[in-house]
Fold these 2 entries.
Entry 1:
Amino acid sequence: MEKDTLILSFESSCDETSVAVIKNGKEILSNIIATQIKSHQRFGGVVPEVASRHHVEEVTKCINLALDEAKVGYEDLNAVAVTYGPGLVGSLLIGIMAAKTVAFAHDLPLIKVNHLAGHIYSANFVTELQYPFMALLVSGGHTELVLVTAPGEFHTLGDTRDDAVGEAYDKIGRVLGINYPAGKKVDQMAAIGKDTFDFPRAMVQEDNLDFSFSGLKSAFINTVHHADQIHEELNKDDLAASFQGAVLDILSNKTFRALKEHPVKQLIVGGGVSANQGLRKRLADEIAKRHLDMELVFPPLRLCGDNAAMIGAMAQIQYDKNDFADLDLNADPSLDFDME
Amino acid sequence: MKILAFDTSNKPLTVAVVEDGKVLAHYESTEKKTHSITILPDIKKALEKANLTVNDIDLIAVAKGPGSYTGVRIAVTVAKVLADTLSKKLVGVSSLELLAANGDKAHILVPLMDARNDNAFAGVYQNSRDKFVSIIGDHHTSMEKLFDALKEYNEDQLEFINATPRLQELIQNQFPNAKIITSDNSLPDAAKLAQLAETKKPVTDIDDFVPTYLRLTQAEHDWYAKGNKDDGNVSYVEEV
């Protein structure tokens, strides 16, 4: 029997400090997440300097909780892994410095993990991945279609040209008087309302796999502002449903276009917006409607947002390939798959 | 006692390993390299040169700020994680006090960190029986207010430390006879940091150890300025 691998993993790319202990890339022994949402809600969005300060406050507490909950000590670990990008540079640096320090202090190999790869490999805790598979990454910072041809082999097929989908939710949420992060509330309102405003579905006619949400966002904001000027009351649930209707059309259109070009057995959805109930239903309905023999995989809600467990899942693949980093590792705030 | 000391609170990076007052290894870098890249390799090199492993160290000393926010966070994060993960003692020393250690012990020492727009992080220190006593605590101030506070001292006694060219100009206008050590000639020295750390109590709760920023973030400042108040029942960060 092969020996188990335990990886202590760190994630601090935005407003969550997370430390996890992952066994063999498949089993979560602990996954501590300290979220700063309540802090940034004071300002209506994530403030990078505030986020960096909170990470320093939380980091040792998270490490010790993660080890305690996993009931392991440093001597049981095989490696230390950390998100090194993309993300906010000041935030990334705290996780990186902490991970490098633990690796140095205990003479453990260090693994640098792409945050986006982590989101994709959240699925590793849900199902047995079959290559190649398609991944739709939807979050506050990213909207991407990625074909994964082998463990750790990523090919970006489409990317957002402007706003990320989660960012668009937060921006229209602000217009509706919903504080950041607005996604969950908009999703709930959309479930009640009707798609009556017929907002534009950007780029669905175009023959590529890229996304755009800024036109939709502007159309939404203009509609609300115009109504305000003429003192007309718009139904907020219908506004939310109309916005989400357009978002789901765009995401679904591009995803199934990609799947037509690259037929696969699994569609993995990851990132904060993968918690969206409307999106979960829509993709399932589309697969049924098209009679596709394809498994649709969403992470459990706890693993949709940023977390270190997913970093440990990806790190295991790199561990198996002896893909290790040095103590001079730095943050790469605009890292993407093509750069590696 | 074996001490590992380091400071990244400003442009220079300094690392030292000191045993019972004897400097075993000492690295200083003024090159504009990124501290996040170099600090751990430099700590590793310093320990190797001292023929020690990190486990042999008894105490970790770090300059805790004020200074560059990101810079201070880098050293403080390494120090707190290292102390926590290896159960070592940790001492944080004011980055300004560390600069004061570059001055003449007979003088009234005014270490500075240029905070732009004729503002600075500043403290006022006096050396008494080989200990630095803070006369005016470290704070963020306009140079004008700082000069007002210093008027009660004999100008010849004043020594400004770590003045950038702009701060030097302002000081010379106000106190032409004061001594000034420019930022080029006032590099923080981790060997002195180790020495200072020996005079101080170790941190009691490592989890709570954070940089001394001396300033709120702009966002928080603006939020309080609007009349907002913290709700004592709300924790801004929560485990979920």
Entry 2:
Amino acid sequence: MPEINEIMGQYSELFMLLAAGTYTVAFIAFAWDLARSSRTLRAVDLKAATAAPAQASAPARVPISAGTSARASGDRAASGVGGPAGFAERPSSAAHRTGEDAAGAGRTAGTDMDYAPARRMPARVGVALTMLGALIHGAGVVTRALGAGRVPWGNMYEFLTTGAFVVAAVFLLALIRRDLRFLGTFVIGLVIIMQVAASVAYWTPVGHLVPALQSYWLIIHVSIAVLSSALFTLTFALSALQLVQSRRQKTVAAGGAARLGFMRVVPSALSLENLSYRINALGFIGWTFTLMFGAIWAEKAWGRFWGWDTKEVWTFVIWVVYAGYLHARATRGWTGTRAAWLSIVGYLCVVFNFTIVNQFFNGLHSYSGL
Amino acid sequence: MSLSDAPETAAGPVPPPLGPAGMLRWAWTQLTSMRTAIFLLLLLAVVAVPGSLFPQRPANPALVTQYIKDRPEYGKILDSLQLFDVYSSAWFSAIYILLFISLIGCVIPRARAHWKALRSAPPRTPRRLSRLPEYGTLVLPAESGVSPGDAIRDAADVLKKRGYRVDIRDADAAMPSLGAERGLLREVGNLVFHTALIGVLVSVAIGGLFGYRGQKIIIEGDTFVNTLVGYDNFTPGTNFQSDWLDPFAITLDKFEVRFDRESTRQFGQPIDFKAAVTTRESPDAAPQQQVLKVNEPVYFGGTGIFLVGNGYAPIVTVKDGDGNTAFSGPVVSVPNDAVYTSSIVLKAPDASPSQLGFVGFFLPSAIKNQEGVSYSFDPDPLNPQLNLNSYYGDLGLDTGKPQNVYNLDVQNLTQLNGRDLPAGGIVLDAGQSYTLPEGKGSISFDGLKRYIGVDIRTVPGQEGVLIFSLAAVAGLIVSLYVNRRRVWLRAGAHVDGRTMIEYGLLARGEDHRLAPEAAAIRARLAARWNLAESDPAAAAAVPARSPKEH
Ligand code: HEM
């Protein structure tokens, strides 16, 4: 058994603290960006409205799915087909589509999340600080692993700090492919909450693993659980935004005043739904593996692969909720807002499984380290 | 689902036709609809929750008994609602059985339909391709010499290379077309996933029917032989025959425990449990030295032995009032906390003139607090000590009623020792002995052994569960990431000799990569016909008209 290096452990805690501080500044930058961008966009809209009637600001935000067809068939919109926007995607509820058509063009960012080339200085600062924070955070995770001489996810503190790192890293990776900077406030906000909860409620010094956790299955099972939870964290933010955006679009479509100005930086509800569907599908596969590897581990440790232990029950419940979500998307009448709610309920179950079940329900999984 | 591809299973409720057969058919349609399946699925999640809120009999029967006893008003009611046996309750079973019937009722017709789809040509070319979500046109100049028929054959070639099944229509007519399809594997994956779920359930049921599990406590030096009488606890599956038990034997030679001595906050937390055992496959097989640890079970064929508990077994000798040895040997104590403060019960029914009973605690590292109460400060046996009360009388063991060995019913006994009695409680350090009051005999604490608790199990369907689960994941990934797409292409000759081509794409289900696919196909076709497509604006400038309209 490797030695415990408490100095490394202290370095790790210092890094965690520094990372949380950096994230906090990034959070402020992202929030500032939301506020400023919404003001800029409103100015653009106003100018467009005065320069040319309607649709003037559309070209910059033509959804990518239009592709060739939009270019090749300029007359189709007029022919009553209504444009191909979003057609290749699973149609959402009627409210969604009218929402997208009515409000999508002028009042929210486009499906491709490819914004007009306006420079968003605060957002850039936010991303840069998030990168810096993630770098420090990563150092914290690595020093923790070195200090304990094993993988850094053996108790709740480690699960949370490593999980928060994965959330930040996945967010940064996603940024390479898509401009998700509008999510920064929400994702980095969640990361900060996770870091604070880890240090305040779940702090545990570096230590050895209890015999029940000494297995290579810890490496496999928990790492996939951390990764899937991180993905579900992202979709939680997306689905929550989707609900707000969907309401806002309905209000706007009904001729109401568009409040919550910052939401105009956020893409349409349908784009949010499609993105969160794709991430949730990935998360669901991960969670399926979590469940399976957990069962294999349970067979090794306790002699049965499934015993309805509290933790097993809740892992199963989460799995079923997300399976329900995937099915809901395949069923008419259950997309849009209802699917978003399922995704949110799924995430709440993840949080419940981690906090309440670990601490207050007695079962075989008493490895919280508290 | 886009356009015409919505599954009929998603249809809303239809009023039932008259007649019992019609009613049945209606009920079946309802049950096997996707909507019902989602509802049942979510319901299953909801009804699984009480199992984590209430103690469950299969996991901990003693806890359930205590729970009901502590709640005289409603414990019994909860019990009659099967809230302590959630996962074998009528309502839980009803929901998952309905769900799986629904699943079977859905998989079979879908499999049949897909089998047909696999063997039939892609659907006919729609009249107005321009209505499809992805649509585009290409124009071949007259001097290229590519006729509409050639163009369709070329396109078929290109599409085949991209993995499409292609069907050419009206090849020699004025406006030939083709229909192409790929990604039929998506539905296969989906069917595999759902079928595998059924497989998982069947395998689990097989384990429940033909498996067994048992518990045994083995003290250092003792041997367990795998026969029915050897078990402390035995739960056979519904169809299990006890002569299926393999006659293996396992001897616990030594059990070592290591506690954390480095960390300050986790000081004394266990970091290693290691049981050195000698095993024999059968009575006349050669003995084998093996190590049994947590997470590292020992297997005899399909039967696994799992280390699930451990504790101390103080060696005690009891002499009765006549001076004869009434009991001698290790007594299993049950640890109650992290420092192994352990409850201990000792019954000496062979003592005479009266039977003797002892109840109390074993403390591995005893120390007194300010009030003079002993407690244990460490899980290692640094200062082992027994703190006991003693009783005499009829232990009630002769009635033949089964008794819990870890519980002494003192109702019909007379107390000899105790904190409140003049004689006080019995406190024995290692090696000490104590003479009981009233000439009832004596007790001595002669040594200390450790014991392990093992679970012994056979679960026959286990490999099936694993294989079906893996199949389910594979099917899931395929059904989520293979995209099912259709492409149609139509060609026609313009009066001025140019060949006009229009194409359209349609996705079935979730497909965010349909537009890139359309662009890729377009690029391949353009390359094939040497069309200059470097400037997309030029391509876009071509008016989008179907050849027919020229
Ligand atoms: C009567 C029962 C069921 C029906 C009718 C049904 C139907 C379907 C259908 C039609 C799809 C394809 C969706 C699409 O093409 O996009 C699907 C996918 C799926 N089903 Fe089921 N299902 C049933 C039961 C279950 C159960 C019990 C589970 C697991 C607990 C499950 C998990 C899944 C998953 C994970 C997918 C993949 C998601 C997707 O492809 O969109 N299904 N199911």
